[in-house]
Inverse folding.
């Protein structure tokens, strides 16, 4: 342990006495490890944010039916653009045939002007919902109450507004029972949704919810709806999707070989597509890290060869005094690993700093993962060991007589 401690101290002393050379030597490792920390932090943060957003929007077990599904190429888009509109008849068909379905909610949304007295929001999200919206956790009321099914069926001019909408229109005043104008039509505020925050810089609290029938009066009924479907139990999630698909195919008269003329989206399928995309970023990271580590390892090996050459007389003297080959190899390898680890530690600090700055200054979330820190330490230690082997072996093989003669 004493020999190891002395070797580490000797390595650190050598690094400190040659600061610029050491910094240039460590650049490869610093770039590689900071890349690992930063990219992993970004991927983890974005994955978590997207997962929360999708699950809160669709629900963990719920899924949606809409006019167009996920398009991965131009052919898919051209085929789906002619799909028929999703209507309330489709919702009725699913309710009739899908026995594992608990609730089907129809909704539509657009952007329009919303105002209260002198305060006006030019483009606010307006959602029209059917009576079944109460069965979904997407909607809530922190103050006041929800819109009742009776009010929806009778197309009452009432609205549930988001926390951000209430804040921007009313400030500190109580918005309940106040009248706001949505696209010029007056609506009474019956409830305010709790604060949800933002995702990627986009507020999740700026919206108004109104009865679907009233929405269609305002913005027209020739607009495709989105159907949100909730299975009776999480165990029936796949069965509910299959039954909903079959119900729509039968109702729309599709033949067995004809493709679906509607899109079915579930949270897990959307997440799979997103995570496939982020996996491509991870592959790019492997290339960057591999190249940086190769360059950094070669530089470390060259520097250690130079160090061995500079300290030839010292090594010869140690061998003459009884040091064995394994002692010389251990010393040189310890110095190489220490040098490489120092670059890894600097890379970890730099990567954590980059991640914090990105999270603070941009809407992109990031979260430093401890496993990525551990990977950075292990990789840089391995690089020091691997690329320090040749210099260490050359030092150990020096003839003490010849080494002492070296000027």
């Amino acid at each position: 342990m004493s020999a190891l401690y002395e070797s580490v101290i000797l390595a650190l002393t050598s690094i400190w006495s040659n600061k610029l050379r050491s910094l240039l030597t460590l650049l490869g490792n610093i770039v590689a490890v900071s890349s690992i920390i930063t990219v992993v932090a970004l991927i983890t943060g974005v994955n978590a944010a997207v997962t929360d957003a999708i699950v809160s929007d669709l629900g963990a077990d719920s899924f949606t039916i809409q006019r167009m599904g996920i398009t991965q190429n131009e052919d898919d888009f051209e085929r789906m653009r002619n799909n028929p509109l999703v209507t309330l008849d489709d919702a009725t068909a699913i309710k009739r045939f899908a026995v594992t379905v608990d609730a089907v909610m129809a909704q539509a949304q657009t952007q329009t002007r919303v105002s209260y007295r002198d305060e006006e929001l030019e483009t606010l999200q307006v959602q029209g919902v059917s009576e079944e919206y109460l069965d979904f956790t997407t909607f809530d009321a922190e103050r006041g109450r929800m819109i009742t099914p009776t009010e929806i069926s009778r197309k009452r001019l009432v609205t549930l507004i988001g926390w951000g909408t209430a804040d921007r229109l009313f400030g500190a005043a109580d918005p309940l029972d106040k009248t706001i104008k949505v696209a010029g039509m007056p609506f009474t505020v019956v409830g305010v949704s709790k604060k949800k925050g933002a995702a990627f810089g986009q507020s999740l609290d700026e919206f108004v919810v109104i009865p679907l029938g009233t929405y269609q009066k305002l913005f027209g009924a020739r607009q495709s709806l989105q159907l949100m479907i909730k299975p009776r139990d999480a165990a029936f999630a796949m069965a509910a999707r299959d039954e909903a698909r079959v119900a729509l195919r039968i109702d729309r008269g599709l033949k067995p070989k004809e493709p679906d003329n509607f899109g079915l989206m579930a949270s897990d399928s959307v997440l799979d597509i997103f995570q496939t995309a982020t996996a491509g970023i991870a592959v790019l990271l492997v290339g960057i890290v591999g190249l940086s580590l190769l360059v950094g390892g070669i530089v470390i090996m060259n520097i250690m060869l130079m160090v061995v050459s500079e300290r030839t007389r010292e090594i010869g003297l140690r061998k003459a005094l009884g040091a064995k080959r394994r002692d010389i190899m251990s010393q040189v390898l310890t110095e190489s690993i220490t040098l490489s680890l120092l670059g890894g530690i600097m890379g970890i600090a730099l990567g954590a700093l980059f991640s914090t700055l990105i999270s603070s200054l941009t809407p992109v979330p990031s979260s430093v993962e401890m496993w990525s820190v551990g990977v950075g330490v292990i990789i840089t230690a391995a690089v020091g060991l691997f690329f320090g082997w040749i210099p260490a072996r050359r030092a150990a093989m020096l003839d003490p007589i010849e080494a002492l003669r070296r000027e």
